[in-house]
Specification:
Blueprint (H helix, E strand, L loop, with lengths): L3 E6 L11 H4 L4 H14 L3 E6 L3 H14 L2 E5 L8 H7 L6 E5 L21 E4 L4 H14 L3
Parallel strand pairs: 1-2, 1-3, 3-4, 4-5
Helix pairs in contact: 2-5, 3-4
Length: about 150
């Protein structure tokens, strides 16, 4: 069994640390990857972080994860609220899926309150900043280890 956790990120997260720091903070996606890798390594797991601004590329990564990952942490960003394609891809993945959002989407615009991804997710974290990714990785490690 693989011990790799895929961490998938949607549009505009490549600008993390630069874009709207009052909402998303000052840390970067590289910081997310480093922190998650440290958490995973403590549990004997590894992470593969991926970001794309293109929906189909994210779908391709989910398809790849079917063979290469024990679990998925996904922050689909704006695709959370629009992408049936990402939901359908996640439904083909047999391992645990944790949906993660940096901001508390329920305190924001009403269109952000609906998530297609939540229909598949085994858990949802929102509003914990980038620490939410670490919490999600911890949970995936626990689930993949049989806990």
């Amino acid at each position: 069994m693989t011990t790799t956790i895929y961490i998938l990120n949607g549009p505009n997260l490549n600008l993390l640390g630069q874009r709207q720091p009052e909402i998303y903070g000052h840390e970067t996606l590289a910081d997310v990857e480093r922190r998650c890798a440290e958490v995973a390594a403590e549990k004997g797991f590894s992470v593969r972080l991926f970001q794309s601004n293109h929906e189909g590329t994210i779908v391709d990564q989910i398809h790849e994860a079917r063979q290469a990952a024990c679990g998925i942490v996904i922050n689909p960003a704006a695709y959370t609220h629009t992408s049936v394609a990402i939901l359908d891809a996640l439904n083909t993945f047999e391992g645990p899926v944790i949906e993660c959002h940096i901001s508390n989407v329920h305190k924001r615009e009403s269109f952000r309150h609906h998530s297609y991804v939540s229909l598949r997710a085994d858990g949802v974290l929102a509003g914990f900043g980038i620490e939410g990714y670490e919490l999600a990785v911890r949970r995936i490690c626990s689930l993949c280890a049989g806990g």
